[in-house]
């Protein structure tokens, strides 16, 4: 059985929305205030797990990624482009925009329950998908790259009113960010 792994950039106050500023929010762009180094390559420490599973996106995140990743070069870009990608959407996608992409047929929660029987599911960004999976008690692991920034506004990674307990399995401080891996307790 695979794990459902959420990877996300977040702030000290728990905000995970608009890290790149594309959302046009007043707090957006916080993940790039220290340059691109903290957000490049495998900052989430997935290693081979990135290649063995499937990436799950919400439509908006997938559309943003589909605009930039197909033209990127380097080992990490090759891996991002090669991995199977599933998109939770009610409106469909242009799957040709990013190779190995497909829209989920039906409900994302039902899809995730079936898919995790065979492989890991790595959820990238996509707060609506993260919140739905957490509400269904399906998230096994969070891999968070935390930035030393307090935005004071924005959408939190963890939805209000949903208590949960985790255990730290790895904490790795970097020059600008800290990688924290949490498993369900």
TrEMBL record:
GO terms for molecular function: 5-amino-6-(5-phosphoribosylamino)uracil reductase activity. It comes from Actinoplanes awajinensis subsp. mycoplanecinus. SUPFAM superfamilies: Dihydrofolate reductase-like. Residues 4-173 form the Bacterial bifunctional deaminase-reductase C-terminal domain. It comes from the Bacteria. InterPro entries: DHFR-like_dom_sf (IPR024072), RibDG_C (IPR002734). This is Riboflavin biosynthesis protein RibD. GO terms for biological process: riboflavin biosynthetic process.
């Amino acid at each position: 059985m695979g794990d459902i792994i959420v990877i996300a950039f977040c702030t000290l106050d728990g905000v995970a929305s608009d890290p790149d500023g594309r959302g046009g929010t007043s707090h957006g762009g916080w993940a790039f205030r220290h340059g691109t180094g903290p957000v490049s390559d495998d900052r989430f420490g997935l290693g081979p797990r990135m290649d063995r599973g499937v990436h799950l996106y919400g439509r908006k995140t997938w559309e943003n990624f589909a605009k930039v990743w197909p033209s990127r070069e380097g080992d990490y870009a090759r891996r991002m482009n090669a991995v199977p990608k599933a998109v939770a959407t009610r409106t469909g996608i242009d799957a040709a925009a990013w190779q190995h992409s497909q829209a989920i047929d039906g409900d994302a929660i039902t899809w995730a329950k079936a898919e995790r029987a065979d492989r890991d599911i790595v959820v990238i960004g996509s707060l609506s998908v993260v919140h739905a999976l957490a509400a269904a008690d399906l998230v096994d692991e969070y891999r968070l790259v935390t930035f030393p920034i307090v935005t004071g506004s924005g959408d939190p990674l963890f939805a209000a009113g949903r208590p949960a307990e985790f255990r730290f399995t790895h904490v790795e401080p970097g020059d600008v960010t800290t990688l924290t891996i949490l498993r369900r307790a």
